[in-house]
Specification:
Length: about 250
């Protein structure tokens, strides 16, 4: 993917552990989304990410922010080990292993997860990532330097129903790793607007297809993103493991 900005590199630059342990996995980040109508009528979703600090340095986010946890799919451990300098001590290696375990734990509870599709067909890569990170409400795979395929859950996570949508930048792609967060921000904004029109709470199951375009705004810079190929998708649940035999007849 020549010329592309790796979604992981965007986050590593903001995490203090990376300066100490250059082989560390890509960390998670707290992301705030703030939708607002743009000057030309296109909805702008302002996205601001905050690094998840090491234990003991956690900060309290203001209650006015709409925060969720974003995780970039971590690198395989063997890839990380290959990048560790030969001069590292066992203590340094141990600390790196602990940090990677911490990042895995964060990713397991993330609301939004994104990874690169690589050589895998995008929809298969997305489904595989969705299965590995079952708690995620939005899942995305970067398919090229301007495009992200995103699945947005619209129902109970166990049902695995939602929309898939292709998000493609018109020009400068900006922060590809934040596209799924922007789509989730739009969904939360839509539900808030719908709640104001009715006396009852509106569920995500009533979510309409995403809009045709959004502005993903980071650091006050808007990146126009077109949304296409909207499709309602219900992924097939994973087969249940065979039940362990029990009872006297199996003893």
């Amino acid at each position: 993917m020549s010329g592309a900005t790796d979604g992981g590199e965007e986050l590593t630059q903001q995490h203090p552990m990376v300066a100490v342990y250059p082989g560390a996995r890509v960390p998670a980040a707290e992301v705030d989304t703030h939708p607002t109508p743009g000057p030309d009528g296109t909805l702008q979703v302002h996205v601001t990410r905050y690094p998840v600090e090491p234990p003991g340095l956690m900060w309290q986010s203001p209650p006015s922010l709409t925060m969720h946890l974003l995780a970039v799919e971590p690198r395989p451990w063997d890839e990380i080990e290959a990048r560790i300098p030969a001069s590292w001590t066992e203590e340094q290696r141990r600390k790196l292993a602990l940090e990677n375990m911490h990042q895995d734990q964060l990713a397991a509870s993330a609301t939004v997860v994104i990874a690169h599709a690589g050589d895998t067909p995008p929809l298969l890569a997305l489904d595989s990532l969705r299965r590995r990170r079952a708690a995620a409400q939005a899942v995305g795979v970067i398919t090229d330097e301007r495009t992200v395929l995103v699945w947005l859950s619209t129902s109970d996570l166990a049902a695995a129903s939602g929309y898939t949508v292709t998000m493609t930048a018109d020009a400068d792609p900006g922060p590809l790793s934040l596209y799924p967060s922007a789509l989730l921000g739009w969904a939360l904004w839509w539900r808030e607007q719908a709640d104001r029109l009715t006396d009852e709470h509106v569920s995500f199951e009533e979510l309409p297809p995403p809009p045709l375009e959004l502005d993903v705004v980071e650091a006050w810079t808007p990146y126009r993103v077109g949304l296409s190929s909207h499709e309602r998708v219900t992924f097939t649940p994973l087969p249940r493991p065979p039940r362990e035999p029990d009872g006297p007849e199996y003893r």
